[in-house]
Amino acid sequence: MSAAQFAPRRSRGLLSTVGDYLPHPTRWRHVFGYMVAVYRREWIGSVFSGFIEPLVVLAGLGIGLGVLVGDRAAEITGGVSYVTYIAPALMASQAMQFGAGEAAWPILGRIMWVRIYHAMVATPLKPTDIIVGAVAFIGGKVAFSACFFAGVLLVTGIATSPLGAIAMVGVSTLTGLAFAAPITAFSVTQKTDQGFAFIFRLIITPLTFFSGTYFPIENLPDWAQVVSWCTPLAHGVALSRGLALGVETPYAAAHAAILAAWAICGTMVASILFRRRMLK
What we know:
By secondary structure, the chain is an all-alpha fold.
């Protein structure tokens, strides 16, 4: 047989390999639907914490810390009150922590302890479908939680318009996904939860303080500013604060694109690593 006769077979094999790493247009929604069905049994607790947590955070850090800052707040915030300055940033920070938490123990638990992902892989679902559905569900939970925070900001007058508050929910969701997707990629490679302590103590918690949440990034040394802008939270904080205050955010499209890139690339890497683990 000639080499030309083998070429179509090689092409089909390459397309098939690429297709294995792409999600099915609709099947990933079955994973999302399953997780929503499970979440229906526990969503009431999320509603309670969604209302209480923003109020506690704003009262403790915004009002309490704002009193300590005193008259110097205007120098830091550009003229607005300190609670108004940090509240939208705290919303983005909460989305980061929520998304990271949902991508850590729950993902590992479904692999190592509950082993529900093993059952899913035994169905026509591809590993990529499972990861895309799982990440989409995390995004939905982040958005659900962000709605309550945005509602509190709107009621208290910190968010200047309903449209701005709605847009802040979108920014928070994108920020949460920008962290959830890469951490999902890490979680699918783990056999224990010991590595999560490193991530949360040395990455997630410090980012809250060095991404413009409590003071402008410009106050940091030059090298620290570069590091800060390389992380998703700084971009989420910049977008969220601009929307809350009703002012134009410089390079807003670039901020959103960077958040989307973190989310998409993280999901792609997570899908590849998850496939290798489940099908080896």
